[in-house]
Amino acid sequence: MTSTDQPRRVRLHHLQQAKEDRRPLTMLTAYDALIAPILEAAGVDMLLVGDSLGNVTLGFDSTLKVTVDDMERAVGAVARSTSRPLIVADLPFGSYETGPQAAFQTAARLMRAGAHAVKLEGGTERVPAIEMLVAGGIPVMGHIGYTPQSEHALGGPRLQGRGSEGERLWADALALQDAGAFGIVLEMVPAQLAKEITKALKVPTIGIGAGPRCDGQVLVWSDMAGMTEWTPSFVRRFGELGAQLQRAAAEYVGAVRQGSFPGPDNYRVE
Ligand code: KIV
């Protein structure tokens, strides 16, 4: 969506309309009230309170250690600080895989915290959970391809859906759509396969490492902004915020040590 035709709140029908009009959708992760309003002001359609918050903000080496409490706190911060983007919250590892009841309980907590939809990883095996959430009024986004919560089963971050694996991905995408998912993240999937799935599905696909022909794109905000030294190859760094921040902090440290901060403008004598 462009800044001229932005709705007051992005809703599911806006996403569906964007697919029909072939307007690319934009999604970035957000985890707090400092960054979320900046991304909103940039015009992003959806904010994903992803479980990548474990790696990005909590210093974990994977998403597996993220809890529902962690997610709930982050969703609340993003919801309190924004008013337009659709907020999608990840169901964290261990909080939904045992079945529909567990999924509903976790999703209800995140919806109460301010999410407008939840995202869960997995294919056909998630159909019962998705059906229950959708029946309970909770919009669900699917996530297939490379699913970080299954990193050990999948042998680490690698392209999924090559060769005969592609058939399973097709089956998963169709099953999620039929179960009522309003959109599907395709992560680290060959671009040709992502393009064909996107064309076949009625609901929007959101790609990450899945080429340009998905209905939209998602990135982890700190990767997009160049906050860290390393970024995955499917990321484009749209800024170098990490280096800028370091320069600003180094100037501050130098100014304090030299006695030039605080300066006359920064304090009152009486
Ligand atoms: O948690 C996350 O950031 C995600 C995206 C990578 C899609 O799930």
Structural class: alpha/beta
The outline comes out as globular
> CATH superfamily membership of the largest domain, which one?
Phosphoenolpyruvate-binding domains
The Rg value, from CA coordinates, equals 20 Å
The oligomeric state of the chains shown is single chain
| CATH second-level architecture of the largest domain | Alpha-Beta Barrel
Mean pLDDT: 97
How many discrete domains?
2
The count of DSSP E runs of length 2 or more, i.e. the number of strands, is: 8
Based on the model shown, name its key terms:
single chain, 270 residues, alpha/beta, TIM Barrel, 2 domains, eight-stranded parallel β-barrel, 11 helices, 40% helix, globular, binds 3-methyl-2-oxobutanoic acid
Structure explained in plain terms:
By secondary structure, this protein is an alpha/beta fold. It has 2 domains: 228 residues, TIM Barrel, CATH 3.20.20.60; 30 residues, no CATH class. It has 11 helices and 8 strands. Helix 2 links the parallel strand 1 and strand 2. The N and C termini lie far apart (52 Å). The mean pLDDT is 97.
SSE topology sketch:
Layout: H1 12-21, E1 25-29, H2 36-41, E2 46-49, H3 53-56, H4 68-81, E3 86-90, H5 100-113, E4 117-121, H6 127-135, E5 140-145, H7 151-154, H8 165-179, E6 183-187, H9 191-200, E7 205-208, E8 216-219, H10 221-224, H11 241-258
Parallel strand pairs: 1-2, 1-8, 2-3, 3-4, 4-5, 5-6, 6-7, 7-8
The structure holds 3-methyl-2-oxobutanoic acid.
The site of 3-methyl-2-oxobutanoic acid (KIV) has 11 residues, from strand 6.
